[in-house]
Amino acid sequence: MRSQLLKTGLIAVSLLGLFSCEKTLEEYNPSGLTAETVFTTPEGFETLVNAAYSYQRWWYGKEEGYNIAETGTDIWTSGAGEVYRDLTQYLNLQGSNTALTNEWREFYAAINLCNGGINRIEQAGLSATLRPVREGELRFLRAFYYWHIVETWGGVHFTTTETNGIVTTANKTPVETFYNQIFEDLKIAVNNLPATQPQYGRVTKGAAQAFLARMYLTRGMNKEALDMAKSVIDGNYGYKLEASFADLWKMSNLKSKEVIYAVDYSANLALNDLANSTFNPYGHGRGSNNAHLLFLMKYDDRPGMTRDITNGRPFNRYMPTRFLLDLYSADDARYEGSFMESWYANSATLPAGIAKGDTAVYCTKKDIPDAIEAAKKYQTYDRADIYLADGTVKDNLRYPTLSKFMDATRASLNEAQSARDVFVIRLAEVYLIAAEAAMQTGDLAAAAQYVNVVRTRAAKAGKAAAMQVKPADITLDFILDERARELAGEQLRWFDLKRTGKLIERIKKYAPDNAVNIQEHHTVRPIPQTQLDAVVNKSEFKQNAGYQ
């Protein structure tokens, strides 16, 4: 079982609870014991630490996390299958949103577990060598969860004390207090953690430094962000960019040297987080990594096409804005490495003139002359078919599909679970953090150098020179464009736009479907109504401004 927020209260009641299985983090099952006895043994304390990692799976690779962190921005809007239009298009967004409710519940349960572990670690019986490492992990995880909380909801409930028993009061804490704790925790993590860990998925010194660099950048501490990013880049950790951007997304390459920190999913799907009434009653309703479902266009009702494992199960949740597609130049291999435009006939019933393996559907960001479209035997959807002249969506069923997260290794065509790990921090992001921080400190030459490392890898063969940028090209908007090209879909975009003060401006400029309802208060999300209903100090703990 795992620690869980009670539906009638704000904070978790106990440290003992549902502990989701980890692929490489071995677990000890303390069922029926008390926290006071279990977590004062090394074996029991390992259970606590492993469980603290598991809550990341509620955000990374899950629809709730994608909707909160990636959609509702300048680069994604709603596909026909979207279920959280209130997040993506700010359509009457309120505290009743279930994605926000789920993440609030799980993250505060995670915080309670981290608080308990940090405060109990001296009594856990760990060796002098292991104790600081486990504290470093818990400190990192507490900072990690609190960052998601404070950026999503603003100055909401904060505590570093373990909760036992139902809590019915909550506090409103300044954002600065959250970040003071985040920085304190991450500095301890950086000092305590080793460069490598014996088990994949555990946080390392390099991962803590990379996340700290991200936090410094978020708070405008640009010199510190640059220094910390350089510590990762120059730290001899063995990180390196993949030679090919497309290679990053191969299922055979999940342990890439470019990945600094990942949320680990098991190839044995039973060891992930799918809800099960017997073994995992508090698990996720879909379990494992679901990203492969969310960005796919509806292809399986087109002539010559049927659903298969290779092309995926199309939930049709999110589609790219025209702005995102236009960000990629003809010299940039990241477009082909991120999106697919062609679907090949695989059906037993085929249109006239089309054989199996021939192109059946072609969706492109380009304009195709009508005469050429009419002459094709396959179906085409070009720029004018997908978007109206002002960039609003015309067809939310057919569009170039983000292919980064597709998984052809799934056992069946309708399997919703994927064993794909989620890349939380990549070396490419650290270069872009360094570039932005250098720009903000006035060193445009250094900023261009860091950007060009990423763009050289992104260049098509023979196009590296054409992909280089000059110091004069470096602006905040250029950095945001470059981050979109490199990191599209990787659960960072909403945070990027918020921290730079560009969320509303760029949505209004580049995402007309999302711009209709957006208002100033949407830079924080509504507190879940279930939490507002649960507290007794309602006059102090109120809904965020702008929400009902």
UniProtKB/TrEMBL annotation:
Q: What is this protein called?
A: Starch-binding protein
Q: Does the keyword Membrane apply?
A: yes
Family, as annotated: Belongs to the SusD family.
Is Signal among the key words of this record?
A: yes
Please state the protein's primary subcellular location: membrane
Subcellular location(s) of the protein: Cell outer membrane
Domain RagB/SusD residue range list: 292-547
- The SusD-like N-terminal domain covers 96-217
Q: Which UniProt keywords apply?
A: Cell outer membrane, Membrane, Signal
